Tripartite tricarboxylate transporter permease TctA
Amino acid sequence: MDQLQLLLEGFAGALTPMNLLWVLLGCLIGTAVGVLPGLGSSMAVALLLPMTFALDPTAAFILFAGVYFGGLFGDSTMGILMNTPGQASAIASTFEGHAMAKAGRAPQALAIAAIGAFLGGIVSAVAVTFAAPALAEFAANFGPAEFFALALLAFGAISSVVADSVVKGLTSLVLGLVLATVGVDPISGAERFTFGSMYLFDGVSLVVVVVGMLALGEVLKVATRIHRDPKPEQLGAPGSRKFLSKREFKDAAPAWARGAGIGLPFGVIPVGGAEVPTFLSYDVERRLDRRRRDPQFGKGAPRGLAGPEAAGNATTGMAMGALLALGLPVSATAAIMLAAFRQYGIQPGPLLFDTSADLVWPLLASFFIAMVVLLLINLPFAQLWAKLLLIPPPYLYAGIVVFCGLGIYATSPSMFDLLFFLGIGCLAFLMRRYAVPVAPLLIGMVLGPLAETSMRDALLGSNGDYSVFVAGPIPIVLYVLLLVVVAFKVRQVVVTRSRRDV
C-alpha cells in the first residue's frame, strides 16, 4: 500500500501541465526518430542530453523516458511498413509484420504493434512499481557462466526455428559471429579479421548490418523480380478496414500476454536490451503456430508480431526499473540515461527511492502516461501510416535506400560505412536468393560479444576450469532447454523425411 500511495503522489507530480508537455514532446520525438532507418532512441537521448541542462531533473527524465518508449513504437512502424527497423529490438517484428503489410493488412499490423507495445509497457510499469526488488534479486544470480549458457540457448533456438535447413541456419549464425569478432580484441589487443584496415579496428556497426540486411537486401530482391513477379513482391495497398477483426484480436491476445511475460525478466538481465526477448518471443509463437492445423507464419501471422512487440516494451520498462533501483544499465539508451543522472549529480541505486523520491515516483507515473499518449498517437494514425504503401514501388524503394544511407551516415559520417552497407546489402540479397535465413546472423552479431566475454570471464574466474559452465542450477536448466530445442528440431526433420518417403 505504501508503494501505491507513493505512485499516486507521483501522478500528482507528473500530471502538471509542464510535465505533461514533456511527456508528449518526448513521445513525439521518440516516434519521429524511430521511423528513420538507422536511428533510434539511444541517439535521440544522446542528442538531447546537452540540451536539457536548463531543465529540472524530473522534467528532463520524463522527457527521456518518453523518447525511450516512443523509439520502440517508431522502430516498429517502419519495420512493418518497409522492412527497415530503426533498432535491433524491432527485427523480430518485421518478419510477420512486413508480411502482413505486403498482404494489404498494414493498418491491422500497426494496430497489433501499438496495442502490444502499450500492454507490454503497462505491465512493465506495474512490475517496476511493485515487483522490481524480486526481479532484481533474480538477476543478481546471473554470472558469466549463466550469460554464456543463455547466449548458447538463444543461438540454438534461433538457428533451428527460423530455417527449414539446420545447415543454413548454422551458416547464417556463423556469419553473424564472424562479423561480431571483427576488430581489435579488447583483452589481448590482437587484430581480428580487420585485414589491416583502420576502419575495422572498432568493429562492425550493428546499425549498418541491420539496415543492410533487412532494408537494402529486400530492396535488391524486389528490384531483381519486380518485372518477373510483380504481384507477390509489391506491397499490398491497405484495405478499407481500419482496425482489427475479432478473430485477429483473439489470435493476438495470448501472444501479447506471453510476450509481456517473456520480456519482463530480461529488463533486469544485462544482455544488451530488448533483442533477446523479442527473438525468444518470436521463437515461442512460431513453435506454437506449427501445432495449428493451418500454420500462418510466413504469411503474416498476427501472433508473430504481437509477441515480440509486447516483449520489447516490457523489457524496456523493466530496464528503467533496473536503472533506478540498481544503477544497472541493460541497454545503450539506459547507459546514456545513467550518464544523465550523473550529470545532475544523482546516483541511481537502492538509496535513490529514499533520497530522490520526488524524482523517482513522478518518473514512474510518467511511464503509464507515456504508454497512453503513445497509444493515442499511433493507433488512430495506423491507416495514415499505411498509405505510405500506396507510393509506387520504384519511388518507395529508392526513398528507402536514401533514408537508410542518411541514417547510417548520421550515426557514423564515414564513406567506408556506406560502402560496407552496400556490401552487406549484396550479401543479404544472396542469402534471400538461396533461402538462407537472416535472423541467425543478426542474433549472432547481437549476442556474440556477450557469449565471448562471458566465456572469458568465467574461465578467468575459475583459473581455466571448464566445469564452471555447469556449476550452478541456472546454466544446467538452460542447457537442458537447449537440448530440448535440438531434440525437437531433430524429431521434426525425421518426421518430415519419413512422410516424404511415404
About this structure: Residues 266 and 315 are 6 Å apart (CA to CA). Residues 2-501 form one domain.
